[in-house]
Amino acid sequence: MTVTPEGPNQEPPIQPGQTSPTTTPTGPTPVTDPLVREAITLRGEARTKAEAIQEAGRMLLGTGAVGEGFVEAMFEREKSVSTYMGNSLAVPHGTREAKQFVEKTAMSFARYDEPIDWNGNPVRFVIAIAGRNKEHLILLGRIARVFSKGDALQALEAATTADEVLDVLAGLNTAQ
Questions:
Q1: Residue 97, Cβ neighbours under 10 Å: how many?
Q2: Is 136 a catalytic residue?
Q3: pLDDT tens track for 82-109
Q4: CA dist 132 to 50, 64, 83, Å?
């Protein structure tokens, strides 16, 4: 799987002696527990990409992680670049401007019995990300590591409870 940088919306470079908003003098800011049980569904209801983005956004809204404008920003991001990542996974997220709607770094997870057409690619898993500062980049890296493992994909396909999903995706909730 390939995870690419944000492109032209990158933040300005850090100057010597300056600390990045997502780092401390000792390293990356820990992003802990961005995925909670309440933001997991094993029976996603969406049948289209637009419905899946809406469903993922509603779960983020339901946890209080984002404000109303964030879901629209997820659609704006999708217009500029597909969030399909490979391995039956899409990772919709907002634009740089949408950070104003992010209350806390969080994710939602949806699994679909029937693949959703994501610009010609079959998607069975949708993990939406709302990240403060540059924390979305940390989460994208963690997601890439998990979804590059065949056994993790099989376990996510076989999961019957949100707790089983959390067990498989444990690396997303730790400061690895």
A1: 12
A2: no
A3: 999 999 999 999 998 999 999 999 999 9
A4: 24, 14, 18
CATH 3.30.70.100 is the classification of domain 34-171:
no
Query: What separation in angstroms does the CA of 17 have from each of 11, 20, 25?
Result: 17, 10, 10
148-152: list long-range contacts, CB under 8 Å, 24+ apart.
148/1, 148/87
pTM of the model as a whole: 0.80
- φ, ψ of residue 23 in degrees (nearest 5): -130, 160
Radius of gyration of the chain (CA): 15
> Bridge partners of 128?
108
Rounded Cα distance, 105 and 149, in Å: 24
Residue among 98, 110, 105, 77 at smallest CA distance from 7:
77
Write a three-state SS string for 49-106: HHHHHHHHHHHHHHCCCECCHHHHHHHHHHHHCCCEEECCEECCECCHHHHHHECCCE
Which tokens go with 4?
């690419």
From the list 29, 78, 88, 93, the catalytic residue is 93
Sorted by where each begins, the domain ranges of the chain are 34-171
